[in-house]
Design brief:
Radius of gyration: 18 Å
Organism: Telluria antibiotica
Number of helices: 10
Mean pLDDT: 81
Protein name: TIGR02996 domain-containing protein
Largest sheet: 3 strands, antiparallel
Shape: globular
Low-confidence stretches: 212-253
Number of strands: 5
Helix content: 40-55%
Structural class: mainly alpha
């Protein structure tokens, strides 16, 4: 399967919206990532296609930070694995790359130090860049990356009826069955942030009130304001206050590290 992943990686490099930036990645980064990432992210795949998808996700995040005046949280451990490897390997080339491609450097901020609302800022910016209407039936590409790649221990996001559900992925990169509404990205929170209008919120609440299937994983009726969803206390800074959303463990759960805006 190695040859097939190599072909898929080459095709993605040719067809990606980030084709020019992917071509500008420094020689040696991929091989360093392949050798070092498994020591930090247990079980991570290291084939060529995974690398290109993860690197493309990191570029999407850098673009979000570069066009935002507020701190952003990175909702993907796969993308973060490339960022960490690059920081260890050659931080000067990373700064040069970001200035050349995004007009600014992107400081690496640990999850615990991120400001409140950082994940929401990323979500709003990515929705705008991807042409996704908050409250619609799609997710921004960056938010679906870990689940698509089945990133072990990564961040899983899914759109259920226009509502964003979240779960920390297990060692096989799965977790949809136990996903619950993410408080920071629930439609009432998006409405409070001015990202959806009252008509969308009202339609959503009507669907919630008339739902009769009693869906698992908390269902659509577990929407709440504020707070943050927690995750298993696994590696990469997962929260340690349980596995369900709605816990009071800080506002940066559901994301890896982050970057500051407005620098």
């Amino acid at each position: 399967m190695g040859w097939l992943n190599t072909l898929r990686a080459a095709r993605l490099r040719r067809t990606s919206p980030w084709q020019a930036a992917l071509a500008d990645l420094p020689a040696g980064l991929e091989s360093y990532w392949r050798a070092s990432a498994p020591r930090e992210y247990e079980g991570i795949r290291t084939d060529a296609f995974f690398f290109v998808r993860a690197a493309e996700g990191l570029l999407r995040f850098f673009d979000a930070v570069g066009s935002s005046d507020r701190p952003c949280a990175l909702p993907s451990d796969a993308a973060d694995s490339v960022w960490h490897a690059w920081l260890r390997w050659n931080p000067i080339s990373l700064e040069t790359f970001c200035r050349r491609n995004f007009g600014t450097t992107v400081p690496h901020v640990e999850r615990a130090a991120l400001a409140d609302g950082a994940l929401l800022h990323t979500f709003a910016t990515c929705c705008a860049h991807d042409g996704v209407k908050p409250g619609g039936m799609r997710l921004p590409a960056l938010f679906g990356l870990d689940a698509a790649l089945r990133m072990p221990g990564g961040h899983g996001y899914w759109n259920r009826g226009g509502d964003v559900h979240y779960a920390r992925l297990n060692e096989r990169g799965r977790g949809m069955w136990r996903a619950t509404p993410h408080p920071e990205l629930a439609l009432p929170a998006l409405y409070a942030a001015g990202l959806v209008d009252s008509a969308i919120l009202a339609a959503h609440l009507r669907r919630r009130d008339t739902a009769t299937d009693g869906s698992s994983c908390g269902g659509i009726g577990d929407l709440s304001f504020g707070g943050s969803d927690s995750a298993s206390s696994s590696h990469h800074g997962g929260c340690s206050c349980g596995s369900n959303c709605g816990s009071s463990c800080g506002s940066s759960c559901g994301g890896s590290c982050g970057g500051g805006g407005g620098d």
